[in-house]
Amino acid sequence: MSETPYPLHTALSLAASGVPVLPVRRGKVPFGNCPACVDNACGGRPNMKTPGPCRCPGVCHAWAAATTEPAVIVSPAWAAAWRRAVCVGYHPGGAGLTVVDLDNADAVAWARTALPATRIVPTTRGEHWIYRGAMTSRNKVRPGVDIKSTMAYARYLGPGTGTTADLPDTVRALAAKTRSPARPVLHAGVPAGSGGGQCPHRTPVFLERGIAMAEQRITAARSAIHATVYGTFLAVLSRHGRCGCLTDTHVARLFTAAQSKGETARHCTDAWTNARTTLGL
């Protein structure tokens, strides 16, 4: 039997240790959406913000496609991707890890004075400092420093050296400092634009129909509730989020529908915030 080629051999080894993996192509990027998944046609999350209900057997949803299942990793649907892959990617948060990505010498020098020692993996331009514990991923928490954990992927560049330490509050605080304050929900009294004209979406029938359809979409979902809630929030905000027609009452109706399907208030808030961030609101 021929030897399993790199990077597939590395992927299988990592998966066996509980680390979700995916192939990464040239340019250090994941494989793009297949034709069936383009423009959210599959109902999944092509923007990679949350995993969706997509049942695509391929590897076209970046970190959300990462898996520890050997049968998936060696499947025909993944074969073409492995042939083109230049390295193995992994989902740190899925393995209960956080990667502090130090992109240059200055960032490395800062980490050596500010962070506790942990497992270190050399990269092309700097180092990955790996900690035990997952958190929200966030880029540019300071010059040359990104945090990769949940909803993100990192390149596997070897086992590194040192002992993996617990995730320190110092790293969590970095991400917290970069968060923008939550924006207040827009109210109907806010002018539609600089001209102060009335927003056409405030037509009662139009807006009511949109909110009612959104509620129905959520309450009718039989699976993939997280993805359905996020997708519905995204659709509502893309239509009404920039003009000021949404009120606290409208948002409360959407949250109530989501909570009736088992979502917590925190999940609702996170989904709403992620949708606003995706749309640049």
Summarize the SSE layout with pairings:
Blueprint lengths: L7 H9 L4 E5 L3 E2 L39 H4 L2 H9 L2 E4 L6 E6 L2 H10 L4 E4 L4 E6 L5 E5 L2 E4 L5 E2 L9 E2 L2 H10 L25 H16 L5 H16 L7 H13 L4 H15 L2
Parallel strand pairs: 6-10
Antiparallel strand pairs: 1-2, 1-3, 3-9, 4-6, 4-8, 5-6, 7-8
Describe the structure.
The chain is of the alpha+beta class. 36% of the residues lie in helices and 14% in strands. The chain has nine helices and ten strands. The strands form two sheets. Strands 4, 5, 6, 7, 8 and 10 form a six-stranded mixed sheet that branches. The relative contact order is 0.11.
List keywords for this structure.
single chain, 9 helices, 4-stranded antiparallel beta sheet, 6-stranded mixed beta sheet, 281 residues, alpha+beta
Structural class: alpha+beta
Q: Number of helix segments?
A: 9
Overall mean pLDDT stands at 80
Tell me the helix content.
25-40%
Contiguous low-pLDDT stretches (5 residues minimum) are: 46-52, 179-197
Radius of gyration: 21 Å
- In total, how many beta strands? 10
* Terminal Cα span: 55 Å
Q: Which overall shape is indicated by the principal axes computed on the Cα atoms?
A: globular
Give a short account of the largest sheet: 6 strands, mixed
Strand content: 5-15%
Brief synopsis:
The chain is α+β, with helices and mostly antiparallel strands.
